[in-house]
Give the backbone structure.
Amino acid sequence: MNLSKSDINKISEISKIIKQSKTFFIAGHIKPDGDSIGSALALASVLNRRGKKACVYSVDEIPKFVKFLKGSNKIKKAVKKTDKFDCAIILESVNFSRTGGIITPSQTKKIINIDHHLTYTDFGNVNYIVPSSSSTAELVLNIFEYMKIKLLKHEAECLYTGIITDTGRFQQVNTTPNSHIASAKLMECGVDVNKVYKEIYEKGSINALKLQGLALYGIKTILNNKVSYILLTKDIFKKTSTSEGDSEGVVNYTLRIDGVIVGCVFKEVDGKTTKVSFRSIRNFDLLKVVREFGGGGHKNAAGCTINAGIKEAVKIVEDVLRKKLKIK
Ligand code: AMP
Ligand code: MN
């Protein structure tokens, strides 16, 4: 990858901190995805191989589709309040607390912040933020290359998982030449692309498929058919004996309808809380929408949590989208 001078300085700073530190806390955001888990596991494995003590943490259950990655069964949920670390590597998080409060910043000497979201803050001692990168995994690979670290097959598979899940298998608008270059390098480290693909995308239960079927059957369009939305109610999960992880990816169907600019999935958390996932076509900036609800993400893939029941949340989002799409 062609790195800018400023990126090289940041990577060099990261490399220094890594060399100076012995104990590492590594975490991505709550409700982790393939990129945050893949990047975190690759980092932990490499650091442990170099004689460091590194562990990955996640307050939330990790998605089923990353459970084939080596080390995923060693991810911990919590640490003691008295535990201290030399370095916390925080991935894909707008601030320290988006990791879910497993540790406080006072429990670590140094903080390395690595992110590719447009919504970010400089909360680390080093902040390696590249919003144009399709995935955090690509940024982690840059660090390994700078440090001249050769990856083992299972480490490469972790990063490859980050790239394919965050680019939607190389078809989303965030896919760059570097997503392919990085993937080619990872293949040279032995990634079995067919195995990884099958593990991630073709290993669901029959119930997960029924959940998606039921959810898709209920898809609606509003605002002159420019917006589509899917409701994932508690009832749908109950009917199909599934859980949240089984609905992974359903949001990507929302843009398949001709003329749709924004697609949404509303997930009922409880009577007063709804999580919303958004996808949009190239020119529509979702950050202008999710910022109104304290959410974040990327221009064409973003999310937020709304403090309202699912039906109310649909109305609230519809009103905001009506304004942004300039529909009367
Ligand atoms: P999702 O729809 O859950 O796949 O999320 C799409 C993108 O938006 C991802 O990059 C998420 O990290 C980001 N995102 C989702 N929900 C939130 C939130 N509540 N706050 C900040 N970013 C979010
Ligand atoms: Mn990511």
